[in-house]
Amino acid sequence: MNAALAAFVAGLIFAVGLALGGMTLPGKVTAFLDIFGNWDPSLAFVMLGAISVHAVLYRVIRRHSSPLFAPTFSTPTRSDLDFRLVGGAALFGIGWGIGGFCPGPAVTSLTSGQPSTLIFVAAMLVGMLLYKLADKAWGHPLATLPQRESHLVAATTSAFEDPQDA
Predict the structure, then answer these.
(1) How far, in Å, CA of 87 to CA of 82, rounded?
(2) What is the full per-residue pLDDT of the chain (166 aa) written as tens digits?
(3) What is the Cα–Cα distance from 26 to 115, expressed in whole angstroms?
(4) If we measure between CA atoms, which residue out of 40, 19, 20, 42 comes closest to residue 30?
(5) Chain-centre distance for alpha carbon 150
(6) 3-class DSSP state of 80
(7) Whole-model pTM over 0.70
(8) What is the total count of domains within the chain?
């Protein structure tokens, strides 16, 4: 199996999993986020299932010397929190709460042809384009802020590390 076919199969499995788990239903997502109203905890089980599978397979895969379709593993080297990371996470959360979609389920939901999905994906793509244009024009002015080590990020990422990698 070549890399493009593997990526397609992985994307297809991801899309089917999103649909089966209800992550492509904005009403279900916003009900999950409405913890003080009509809360629907079912997506917590979807997330716990995904995290559990990832935690196990990450440890198994990292025992290999390299991935199947690349010479080396591509893992993050930074463990600090900066304004861009926190700000991006906040914008992601706001968009998820307002639209009921995050990028993967939104793209998967395009097959529904719903106007609200098309508008969300179009707005998401415009936002990505604006970011690229601003980044090209002004660079990363926030990247010059002082970096602070985050023990939370280090602890979170080390929970998935294999002790043999240390």
Answers:
(1) 8
(2) 688 898 899 889 988 888 888 888 888 888 988 889 989 999 899 889 989 999 999 999 989 998 888 888 888 888 888 887 888 889 888 888 888 888 888 888 898 899 989 999 999 899 889 888 887 887 765 554 444 444 444 444 444 455 455 4
(3) 13
(4) 40
(5) 20
(6) strand
(7) no
(8) 1
**Nearest partner of 24 among 52, 51, 43, judged by Cα:** 43
Nearest to 99, CA basis, from 32, 26, 16: 26
CB 69 within 8 A of CB 6: yes
Which of these, 80, 76, 77, lies nearest to 149 by C-alpha position?
80
What does the pLDDT read at residue 153? 46
Distance (Å, rounded) from C-alpha 95 to C-alpha 104?
A: 13
Give the pair of three-digit tokens for residue 129. 């384009």
Structural domain that includes position 117:
3-165
Q: How many CB atoms lie within 10 A of CB 151?
A: 8
> What Cα–Cα distance (Å) separates residue 15 from each residue in 23, 49, 109, 150?
10, 15, 9, 33
* Strand, helix or coil for residue 79: coil
